[in-house]
């Protein structure tokens, strides 16, 4: 018997990869995610390879995972993949304190983020547009 299988959230020509609890603020991660949104995957990988941002290597690893999911799990053509979505979500925030003068303290927040990358296979007619 068992539980019914849940419907797939993505369309048939899409695949995704999720990186959870990345140790960077969502605002900084979104700057790097904005670099690759809407671009072809080979161009996006090249941009991440030569980016000077610290988190670019983690974003590149997540994008490579989404490409591998598309190729191996969904039989999509790697050469016609486009980064359809790259969005960032908030995760936990570690709270620490910093000792200040006169016996006071101040709070330091260390935020974490989630990154989701969705790649979509497009036809040759859509690429020209």
UniProtKB/TrEMBL annotation:
One of its GO terms (biological process) is translation. It comes from Hoeflea olei. NCBIfam families: rplV_bact. HAMAP family: Ribosomal_uL22_B (MF_01331_B). GO terms for cellular component: cytosolic large ribosomal subunit. GO terms for molecular function: rRNA binding; structural constituent of ribosome. InterPro entries: Ribosomal_uL22 (IPR001063), Ribosomal_uL22_bac/chlpt-type (IPR005727), Ribosomal_uL22_bac/org-type (IPR047867), Ribosomal_uL22_CS (IPR018260), Ribosomal_uL22_sf (IPR036394). This protein binds specifically to 23S rRNA; its binding is stimulated by other ribosomal proteins, e.g., L4, L17, and L20. It is important during the early stages of 50S assembly. It makes multiple contacts with different domains of the 23S rRNA in the assembled 50S subunit and ribosome. Part of the 50S ribosomal subunit. This is Large ribosomal subunit protein uL22.
